[in-house]
Amino acid sequence: MSLVTLLPFIVLIGAMFLMTRSAKKKQQAAAQMRNDMQPGTGVRTIGGMYATVKEIQEDTVLLEVAPGVHAVYAKNSIGAVLDDAEYNRIVHGDDELEGDDTVVPDDASSLTTGGSSDDVAKIDLGKKAEDDDAPKDTEAKSAEAKDVKADGEGDAK
Fold this sequence. Notes:
The chain is an alpha+beta fold. Helices cover about 40% and strands about 20% of the residues. The chain has helices at about 5-35, 85-90, 140-155, and strands spanning about 40-45, 50-55, 60-65, 70-75, 80. The chain has a five-stranded antiparallel sheet with strand order 4-3-2-1-5. Strand 2 (about 50-55) and strand 3 (about 60-65) form a beta hairpin. The radius of gyration is 33 Å and the shape is flat. About 5% of the residues are buried.
């Protein structure tokens, strides 16, 4: 056998080795994260629920999902251990602005310059009146409306 025929197999085995090695590193990092949990830390489960760790056993964790509500979860169901600032921001809505971050207002009123609201042109949302010079052919309009309805009903079915 020549080296050219064995080369695709060697490349395939090398790629499989690299993929399994990176997956194994991710699993070890996740296991280390779960082992480093301590009571009082905020966590996110793999289902997306945020809770506080109360007790840690060998394979299970007691989580407080709401004040006074406790649930037992497997350690493998913990997706991420969150730091206190991130947990408080997500769960309690604490907004901590750091540095010179840009603040976006809730409405656009602070973005306009000059003048009061009386100076702003009012937009008329009512129907426009027909010109008096134009003939009013109500029969033709009602016939067109019926034709449109008939066409629309046929397409809807």
